[in-house]
Task: structure prediction
Amino acid sequence: MTTSLSPYPNLEQLRKQAKDLRKAHGSGAPEAAARLQTYVARFSECEIEPILEAELALRDAQHVIAREHGFGSWQDLLAAVRQQPPEPRQLLVEAVSYTEDELLPVELLQVEILARPDGSSTACVILRSADDRILPMTIGAPEGLSLASCLKQEIFPRPLTHDLFTACVEALQGEVTAVVIHAIEETTYLAHVILQVAGQRKIIDARPSDSLNLAARRRAPIYATPSLMERAGRHISELAAIVEAMTRG
Result:
């Protein structure tokens, strides 16, 4: 079946199309009546005026949308939409909620691989600001090992994932100019990688674990937003207790 669906159809947009058709019918639009005449069997022999005067159920409008997209029914359209893969996440950030002038420089104070009582592993990363506040975060053990090995200047026979990404940026004549840890949602930190590519500044949405790995490899500065530091920052005197709590999970 040939359809006119986009590669990543949005169900809410399709529902809105049906509601818009119903609204157009209610306002007396002849174009809406013509669409109903074409695709709804009970209107196929009617003139425009009787169609506009008739009550229009939402299911009739949905049927029209389905037929216009090449499907036999609204249920067929729903099934097709639900089988489609989700739209790729857009990682290029167009605007941010902070300014460069307000950002707080932080340094990588500690990276430690922790063994938990259940046998699993995690990595503890501590960032410190100039006023001895710290941002403690846990990241995956593989990313933590990659970061720790970079800081120790260990060289592996084959490139790690973050080595590969760094090499790709360099091959494109780009540069990692900064990393910004800018927010926390529940317990998940959010980060941006700032790139300079072909004279243009690009901001990429990224995990802190990947961002810090790139910053370490390119010796790029790391920043935190004041709002994040106010919300999640702790004093360095709490460091031992924080690491112990991370170990317990």
